[in-house]
Design goal:
By secondary structure, this protein is α/β, with parallel strands linked by helices. The chain has two domains: about 140 residues, Aspartate Aminotransferase, domain 1 (Alpha-Beta Complex); about 270 residues, Aspartate Aminotransferase, domain 2, CATH 3.40.640. Helices cover about 40% and strands about 15% of the residues. It has a seven-stranded mixed β-sheet, sandwiched between helices. Helix 4 packs antiparallel against helix 14 and helix 6 crosses helix 13. It binds 3-[O-phosphonopyridoxyl]--amino-benzoic acid (PXG). 3-[O-phosphonopyridoxyl]--amino-benzoic acid (PXG) binds next to helix 6.
Length: about 475
């Protein structure tokens, strides 16, 4: 790797406020802070900021750097492809080698009838592709009434108009007057909040039943698809109760509703299988992928599509007038191919399943006795710590939107660990190459940060302490 560059961080922060609008930010807050934290470099599982702080990256960037930072092979794959052919499109009966090879590789990993792949640049775009392809499929098939999508509250499916609409985040819906018509939301399988103390099987049945009820309410002949993340990520690492996905799968099949598995976070080893649907043993018709597909080294996303859907598109679909300039970008696809090669060669999927996943789950048990911890849960290498005001309950320090998570997160960052604070939880999603020692450090920092944050949590205004 080249020697780190010397940046003028104070000037960058000034320019950040003056000109740069970062993603998903409160711009008044960024201005008051005097600019964003500038991350300048990274290696392995550690990121470095402009002030020289080394921070263990418990979030793999933004749920994506599965193979860790500093992979020379990926740099070389990009450089070689850029030299040979930096860009050509996949419109108008052309293609380039990398996306064709990547599609074949993904078809092998997806298995079964998921043998076709459409490329885009982001997870949001992948879900926009799903939205249009699903409606086009039903229309082509002669069932044009099947236009409704069912999703869950608190799901995250992206930031574009279709992505936000399919998602179930009410605060996001409020920006842009969404969702668009034809998207319907049902309860999420969030047992700690919505089924606290309830029998696991009974809760799984109740959460799945809402989907069947919604299908019947809308009329099965009008329902196009159900979309869900195997484990909800941005919603707070919601791990569904045992039996939930099998029930959802059976309900979709019973009514001929397409099942879409949004694997943008769960794909590429995160849960200890190549895909979350494989872990839960269900068979989706479409699969959205992004993030870990290239470990975030370059933007690329994909939609896996079943043989049945493609058969209809071929026989009756005509031209599918949909696509992006960068659909199948050759450099991104070349990097993704190399990334998948690394994951396979280093056995990272098996490593999550048999080694670091169980190790992480075990390490989290050290938090069980903490008076602020309501639950510390994980599956593979994704996890959450629920922060409660009263041990043994799910009572929170604050109102519905929860402030405890961001408070604890800020202390964790100060102590050298990057996590996300989501409502009253902190969540973790480290690179799949994380070591046992790093997992131990992660949990130690969380334990210490909870203690440090406790006075601030207990000092939250009384009128915000409810529900
Ligand atoms: N589906 C899922 C399941 C995701 O997690 C997307 C789609 C959209 O992907 P793009 O590439 O368009 O961002 C995501 C993205 C957060 C956070 O706050 C999560 C995501 C993105 C940004 C922030 O945790 N997930």
């Amino acid at each position: 790797m080249a020697a780190p560059r010397n940046y003028n961080i104070a000037e960058l922060r000034r320019l950040d406020v003056a000109h740069h609008l970062p993603a998903q930010a409160n711009y008044a807050e960024i201005e008051a802070l005097g600019g964003s934290r500038i991350i300048t470099r990274a290696e392995g599982c550690t990121i470095y900021d402009g002030d020289g702080n080394a921070i263990l990256d418990g979030m793999a960037g933004l749920w994506c750097v599965n193979v860790g930072y500093g992979r020379e092979e990926l740099v070389r794959a990009a450089a070689e492809q850029m030299q040979e052919l930096p860009f050509y499109n996949t419109f108008f009966k052309t293609a380039t080698p990398p996306p064709v090879m990547l599609a074949a590789k993904l078809a092998q990993l997806l298995g079964g009838r998921l043998q076709h792949v459409f490329f885009n640049s982001s997870g949001s775009e992948a879900n926009d592709t799903v939205f249009r392809m699903v409606r086009h499929y039903w229309k082509s098939k002669g069932e044009p009434k099947r236009a409704n999508f069912i999703s869950r509250w608190n799901a995250y499916h992206g930031s574009t108009v279709a992505g936000v609409s399919l998602g179930g985040m009410k605060l996001m819906h409020a920006i842009g007057d969404l969702p668009i018509p034809g998207v319907h939301h049902v309860m999420q399988p969030y047992r700690f909040n919505e089924g606290f103390g309830e029998d696991e099987e009974a809760f799984a049945a109740r959460a799945a039943q809402e989907i069947e009820d919604k299908i019947l309410e809308l009329g099965p002949e009008s329902v196009a698809a159900f979309i869900g993340e195997p484990v909800q990520g941005a919603g707070g690492v919601i791990i569904p109760p045992k039996g939930y996905w099998k029930r959802v799968d059976a309900i979709c099949k019973k009514y001929g509703v397409l099942l879409v598995s949004d694997e943008v976070i769960c794909g590429f080893g995160r849960l200890g299988a190549w895909f979350g649907f494989q872990h839960f043993g269900v068979t989706p018709d479409l699969v959205s992928m992004a993030k870990g597909l290239s470990s975030g080294y370059l933007p690329i996303s994909a939609v896996g599509v079943s043989d049945e859907i493609v058969k209809v598109l071929r026989e009756k679909g005509g031209e599918f007038i949909h696509g992006y300039t960068y659909s199948g970008h050759p450099v991104s696809a070349a990097v993704a191919l190399k990334n998948l090669e690394i994951i396979e060669r280093e056995g990272l999927v098996e490593r999550v399943k048999d080694d670091v996943g169980p190790y992480f789950a075990n390490a989290l048990r050290r938090l069980d006795g903490d008076p602020l911890v309501g639950e510390a849960r994980s599956l593979g290498l994704i996890g959450a710590v629920e922060i409660v005001a009263k041990k043994g309950t799910n009572e929170r320090f604050t109102g519905k939107e929860g402030k405890a998570g961001p408070i604890v997160r800020d202390v964790c960052i100060k102590n050298g660990l990057m996590v996300r604070g989501i409502r009253d939880s902190i969540v973790m999603c480290p690179p799949l190459v994380i070591t046992h020692a790093e997992i131990d450090r992660m949990v130690d920092i969380i334990a210490r940060s909870l203690r440090e944050a406790e006075p601030a949590l207990r000092a939250l205004p009384a009128d915000e302490q409810a529900g």
